[in-house]
Amino acid sequence: MIETPQSPQSQVGDAPGADAPLTAAEVDALRADFPYLERPARNGEPLAYLDWAATSQKPVGVILAEADFYRRSNGAAGRSTYQLADEATAVWEDARDAVAAFVGARGSQLVFTKNATEAINLVALAIGHASLSRPAGHGGPAAGATDPSARLRLRPGDEIVVTVAEHHANLVPWQELAARTGATLRWLDLTADGRIDLGTVDVITDRTKVLALTHASNVTGAVTPLEGILPAARSAGALVVLDTCQSSPHLPLDFAALSAAGVDAMVLSSHKMLGPTGIGALVATEELLDAMPPVLTGGSMIETVTMASSTYMPAPARFEAGSQPLAQAAGWHAAVDYLAEVGLGRLHSREQVLLDRALRGMAEVPGLRLLGPADAHDRVGVVAFTLDGVHPHDVGQVLDAAGVAVRTGHHCAQPVHAHFGVPSSSRISFGPVTTPAEIDRFLEAVASVRGYFQR
Fold first, then answer.
1. Would you give per-residue pLDDT tens digits along the chain (455 residues)?
2. Which residue numbers delimit the Aminotransferase class V domain (predicted)?
3. Which of 188, 271, 311, 418 could be disulfide-bonded to 163 (CB atoms 3.0-4.6 Å)?
4. CA 449 to chain centre
5. What domains are there in the chain, each with its CATH number?
């Protein structure tokens, strides 16, 4: 991580406890690290950015880390032995180790992708490839060898299970995989307030080969009760893929513990974790990575190429074809260092206070309907809502005019909205430097929206 005057370590200092909420003074100090706060909102007032679930703002250390790579270490990683190439390779592999360690994994378990969507597709496509017959020397095993990908094969009659809470990125790839292989797609339903209904876990049976589910909903903010679901998946011998895009910026994760409980893979999104866009990751057990056939092929991921056939590098390199997003990796490294120094436990504890403040205030707004639980228990700082008689897009425009940035639309989660009987919603979400004053500005502005359209 690049040392800057805005280092959170120098501002937050020794934490009073791993889970003690950050103080107001500490948050004020952290806000000096975020350049976006230097610019005014559309109305000329300070910007209240409440769209962290869509994309996070970046601290200056992340911005400098990405730029510093181009200034000082730009070279072809893994392709030569000159100094810049060696430095670029070190940046890439150091970032791999740092991001993996941040979520309790080993570097050998982390595959860099361009985003979390690609990471999910990587697994789904690998299962699809494994379900085809591949001759020896063409991505298949050597003649006479056992094919490790055999455990991934899907056939008609097999089942893939998802949940109604999924982002489209963790639904559409599995729909496509089911269509290509003849497998059946089934799903866990939701309760009235949008939590995963454990009463529907019985859709997981001995026919279930894959379970793909979110760790926290990007609409309701509800955290998935894994302890009530994973035992059924483990009993079925199902491969479990966990989408942590909304949990990884808010909750400490431990892939070692998750994998011990039955999770085979999880996906990460840099730009939701204070890092750059254009990079994400698949974190998976070595057993799964060894079983997955390559999906994208080309340079960097090969061992030997002849005109007749090719052999491939071991994982994770086998899944990282082509030129790497090196500067983005440097920025993501700085981002996880920043989050680790501040402490996700402390950030989450403070977020619960903000979430409670927002939920209590929203309950007082006439015509406002929450899409999700009405309390802060087992949820992250993501809150979707509708206003009677006002389109979410109009809600967003009125709030924008008041200097409050929120998300509007279906949030790439149309089945969740269909569950609540609405096509779309508005959504607020919190980050490390969200303040009570920003929550109050939102509450004041949202309370005025219906009156604006009833003039």
1. 233 334 454 344 444 467 899 999 999 999 999 999 999 999 999 999 999 999 999 999 999 999 999 999 999 998 888 999 999 999 999 999 999 999 999 999 999 999 999 999 999 999 999 998 654 444 555 544 567 788 899 999 999 999 999 999 999 999 999 999 999 999 999 999 999 999 999 999 999 999 999 999 999 999 999 999 999 999 999 999 999 999 999 999 999 999 999 999 999 999 999 999 999 999 999 999 999 999 999 998 999 999 999 999 999 999 999 999 999 999 999 999 999 999 999 999 999 999 999 999 999 999 999 999 999 999 999 999 999 999 999 999 999 999 999 999 999 999 999 999 999 999 999 999 999 999 999 999 999 998 887 75
2. 49-130, 153-442
3. 188
4. 31
5. 8-58+343-453 (3.90.1150.10), 67-340 (3.40.640.10)
Q: Which residue's entry shows tokens 């002849």?
A: 306
